[in-house]
Design a protein that fits this description.
Layout (H helix, E strand, L loop, with lengths): L5 H4 L10 H7 L15 E12 L2 E9 L9 E7 L6 E7 L10 E8 L4 E10 L5 E10 L5 E3 L10 E13 L4 E10 L4 E8 L7 E5 L12 E9 L2 E8 L15 E8 L4 E4 L5 E2 L7 E7 L7 E6 L14 E2 L6 E6 L2 E6 L7 E4 L12 E18 L6 E7 L4 E8 L11 E5 L6 E7 L2 E6 L4 E6 L8 E15 L10
Parallel strand pairs: 1-20
Antiparallel strand pairs: 1-2, 2-3, 3-4, 5-6, 6-7, 7-8, 9-10, 10-11, 11-12, 13-14, 14-15, 15-16, 15-17, 18-19, 19-21, 21-22, 23-31, 24-25, 24-28, 24-31, 25-26, 26-27, 28-29, 29-30
């Protein structure tokens, strides 16, 4: 695998033609997705600025154009009118000032009557490679002309250099704007910093550190924090780093949430209990970004990076990596977040597969399974003799579902574990599975759990095998994302 120098990773893209041959080459990859947002070239990681504005959904992503490597980051812009079909608009935010000279890092968006404000972290490094993080603002008035405003504020001296991922929040009751930042204390504990202002564009001041009782030493850095109001609950979402959790194998970077109550006067989020809930039980999910739903304040829409920090994928050898999950609707049920596929995704269904005539599974499809009870075993993309593939097993006695990708030919990130298990106290009754050319998303029991994972099947891995009492339907899915070269 290629070893990247600092100069190569942080090279400035001056002309789109520099990467056109790379795009043409990776478009021939057998693992290019058909209905998931993916990198136009190089690396995609965090989703950013997910928002509904002026009749369209806007979704940006972190982008390093040169290869499957973290280096100089841009914000790449996509739009949709239905959260299903997406159009590439190209680069929106470039790292072209003193304050973001080594990358436009993650952030969020605020729609207003006449503009769309984009808040992000400017990654500045001096000649000695010492980092300073600035919270920066772009005024995007017309989808075409991003205008950078003066920096809102710089790094807080009482914390380490790790201060990033601004989430903008407007509190209507107080008539105030808040920005929450993921950060790290000098004692190397993860935390959230809060800034406040009466204006979205100026006069920001440090309000304090968010207090989260019981989680004062939970990981050494919290990335991508957000506080959402869903189904009447306050939800704190964040990504704690460098800690191990039961059932998560060797993975040390997680995406999860706490249910509780947020007090903006005391800057305290009081969890309902001491349990940190994993947001996604699959192998590859991180940096979740929520957008408010304009039609229903009881739910939100979530997208995440279908990947992890410090992980490698087979497409790295092809100089590209990364895609986003399907958008999901969030609600609270039984004091847990549930995630459901969007209803509009049914519009992608094409012809159904006659499973009585064939056990060949389309590479791009949706499966719906209804269990009639008892143990169940499903193998997706098995070999012709029925062996291997991605297995989904439900143990009725233990009331547990397990996803195992060790049976696929391409095994990767093995040190992080190849099995994930989720208890199902009510048993298993329903699965919806979305299979794309290099990913699988498994929605369990109408949203009780979801497993999002990258998979990289090869020729001959194409069979469906089912053991147990269940009915299954399979549909081909139509393309929804054009793999066009727009920079």
């Amino acid at each position: 695998m290629k070893t990247w120098t600092k100069e190569e990773r942080y090279r400035v893209l001056r002309d789109p033609e520099e990467i056109r041959p790379l795009h043409e080459r990776i478009c021939r990859s057998d693992w290019r997705q058909t209905y998931h947002i993916q990198s136009v070239t190089g690396l995609l990681n965090d989703p950013n600025g997910f928002v509904y504005h002026d009749g369209l959904w806007h979704l940006f992503y972190q982008w390093c154009p040169w290869g499957a490597v973290h280096g100089l980051k841009y914000w790449y812009h996509t739009i949709s009118n239905d959260l299903v079909t997406w159009k590439n608009l190209g680069v929106c935010i470039k790292p072209d000032t003193l304050y973001d000279n080594k990358g436009a890092y993650s952030g969020s968006a605020l729609p207003t009557d006449d503009s769309l404000y984009l808040y992000y972290t400017g990654n500045h490094r001096d000649e000695n490679w010492v980092r300073k993080s600035y919270t920066l603002l772009v005024d995007l008035k017309d989808r075409e002309t991003p205008t950078k405003l003066p920096p809102l504020y710089g790094p807080h001296p009482d914390y380490t250099e790790h201060q990033r991922d601004p989430k903008i929040i407007y509190n209507k009751e107080k008539g105030k704007y808040y920005i929450i930042l993921g950060a790290q204390t000098k004692e190397k504990h993860g935390c959230v910093l809060i800034y406040a202002s009466d204006s979205p564009t100026q006069d920001w001041h440090f309000a304090g550190e968010l207090k989260v009782p019981g989680f004062e030493a939970f990981g050494d850095m919290w990335e991508c924090p957000s506080i959402e109001k869903i189904s009447g609950y306050d939800v704190l979402l964040f990504c704690p780093q460098h800690l191990t959790l039961p059932g998560r194998g060797g993975t040390v970077h997680h995406n999860g949430y706490l249910l509780g109550q947020m007090d903006w006067d005391s800057l305290t989020f009081t969890p309902d209990n001491t349990q940190f809930h994993v947001l996604d039980f699959g192998f590859d999910s991180y940096a979740a970004e929520c957008a408010a739903n304009p039609e229903d304040q009881n739910k939100a829409t979530l997208v995440a990076w279908m990947g992890l920090p410090d992980a490698a994928y087979p497409t790295d050898e092809e100089d590209w990596s990364g895609c986003l999950t399907l958008p999901r609707e969030l609600r609270v049920r039984d004091r847990r977040l549930i995630q459901q596929p969007l209803e509009d995704l049914r519009a992608l269904r094409g012809r159904s597969v006659d499973l009585e005539a064939t056990d060949l599974l389309p590479r791009v499809c949706e499966l719906e399974l209804i269990s009639r009870g008892g143990d169940l075993s499903i193998h997706l993309l098995a070999k012709s003799d029925g062996s291997g593939g991605l297995s989904i097993r439900y143990d009725d006695a233990a009331r547990e579902i397990t996803v195992d990708r060790s049976g696929l030919t391409h095994r990767f990130n093995v040190d992080q574990g190849e099995q994930r298990t989720r208890p199902l106290p009510k048993g298993l009754f329903h699965l919806r599975i979305f299979l794309d050319r290099s990913s699988v998303e498994i929605f369990v029991n109408d949203g009780d759990a979801v497993f999002s994972s990258r998979i990289f099947p090869v020729a001959g891995e194409e069979r469906l095998r089912l053991e147990g009492d269940a009915s299954v339907r399979v549909w081909h899915l139509k393309p929804a994302v054009e793999d066009d070269f727009v920079v």
